[in-house]
């Protein structure tokens, strides 16, 4: 109801709801007091199937009482809880308030569990079985939908178990990424590179950087045009974590491998987003989750 720009709609919805409830009582009263024209045997004269006569019997009292109780319950509910327009009810209950209270209750209950991890380093947490068990459950609930249950990702979703990090793989960066999310943008570069042939030449040059199969003649011709990409990926193609630009020399292809995939990337660019999780997880949970993710790519250090 807070989206309404005037009191008209609040009064319209609230009034219509109240009138509808009261109309039920009025309808019941009318139906109970109105006399129908019946014959001496209490039939109305309507007959079906030759011998099935309609009678004018009153509603059972238990049904009438139950109907009245239902209407009274609706009125009492509307007085206590939000039901009539933007009237909040005597109790002042809101779904947001109940959710906030329940979240606070849960966080208070789990706080002692996470308190023991607050003073640990990422290395210590990555080696703690309890912390990693909690981290795994958090990962399954909030990260596995995109990165997979094994954290190896998929096309367009990074593998978190290797050493290839677009924005940096240290614990602090991972924690920031989980908290705030990330937006990865590669603008379409075809206009900057040149013609369609130039784009294919650059694609082959990019393939050559990682030793992937490529056309060496095209790669040689594309080296000069790669300067349009060097602002982010560097002249050596090793990328820059500061802007989230991928390393093109390691043979890891987030958006697909091969000449056609690279041509599409140059022509169309990318616009990817990882949502931040701060609205769903508190700082202590994010700390444990970040340690779990960090530990998957640093198993040798655990």
TrEMBL record:
GO terms for molecular function: electron transfer activity; heme binding; metal ion binding; oxidoreductase activity. GO terms for cellular component: plasma membrane. Component of the cbb3-type cytochrome c oxidase. This is Cbb3-type cytochrome c oxidase subunit. InterPro entries: CcoP_N, CcoP_N_sf, Cyt_c-like_dom, Cyt_c-like_dom_sf, Cyt_c_oxidase_cbb3_su3, Cytochrome_c_Oxidase_Subunit. GO terms for biological process: oxidative phosphorylation; proton transmembrane transport. Keywords: Cell inner membrane, Cell membrane, Electron transport, Heme, Hydrogen ion transport, Ion transport, Iron, Membrane, Metal-binding, Oxidoreductase, Repeat, Respiratory chain, Transmembrane, Transmembrane helix, Transport. Heme c 1 binds at residues 143, 146-147, 274. Heme c 2 binds at residues 186, 229, 232-233. Gene3D superfamilies: 6.10.280.130, Cytochrome c-like domain. C-type cytochrome. Part of the cbb3-type cytochrome c oxidase complex. Pathway: Energy metabolism; oxidative phosphorylation. Its main location: membrane. Belongs to the CcoP / FixP family. Residues 130-210, 217-297 form the Cytochrome c domain. It is found in: Cell inner membrane. The chain crosses the membrane at residues 12-30, 62-81. Binds 2 heme C groups per subunit. Its cofactor is heme c.
């Amino acid at each position: 109801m807070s989206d309404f720009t005037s009191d008209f709609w609040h009064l319209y919805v609230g009034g219509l709801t109240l009138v509808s409830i009261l109309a039920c009582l009025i309808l019941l009263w009318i139906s109970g007091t109105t006399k129908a024209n019946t014959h001496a045997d209490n039939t109305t004269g309507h007959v079906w199937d030759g011998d099935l006569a309609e009678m004018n019997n009153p509603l059972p009292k238990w049904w009438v009482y139950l109907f009245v109780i239902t209407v009274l319950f609706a009125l009492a509910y509307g007085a206590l809880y939000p039901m009539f327009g933007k009237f909040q009810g005597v109790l002042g209950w809101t779904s947001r308030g109940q959710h906030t209270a329940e979240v606070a209750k849960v966080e208070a209950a789990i706080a002692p569990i996470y308190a023991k991890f607050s003073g640990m380093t990422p290395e210590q947490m990555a080696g703690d079985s309890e912390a990693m068990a909690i981290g795994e459950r958090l990962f399954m609930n909030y990260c596995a939908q995109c990165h997979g249950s094994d954290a190896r990702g998929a096309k367009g979703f990074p593998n978190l178990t290797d050493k290839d990090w677009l924005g940096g793989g240290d614990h602090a960066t991972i924690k920031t990424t989980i908290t705030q999310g990330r937006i990865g943008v590669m603008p379409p570069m075809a206009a900057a590179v040149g013609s369609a042939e130039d784009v294919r030449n650059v694609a082959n040059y990019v393939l050559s950087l990682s030793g992937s199969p490529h056309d060496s003649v095209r790669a040689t011709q594309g080296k000069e045009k790669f300067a349009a990409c060097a602002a982010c990926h560097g002249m050596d193609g090793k990328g820059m974590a500061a802007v989230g630009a991928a390393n093109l020399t390691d043979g890891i292809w987030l958006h697909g491998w091969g000449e056609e995939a690279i041509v599409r990337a140059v022509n169309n660019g990318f616009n990817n987003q990882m949502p931040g999780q701060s609205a769903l997880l508190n700082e202590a949970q994010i700390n444990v989750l970040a340690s779990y993710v960090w530990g998957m790519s640093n198993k040798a250090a655990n």
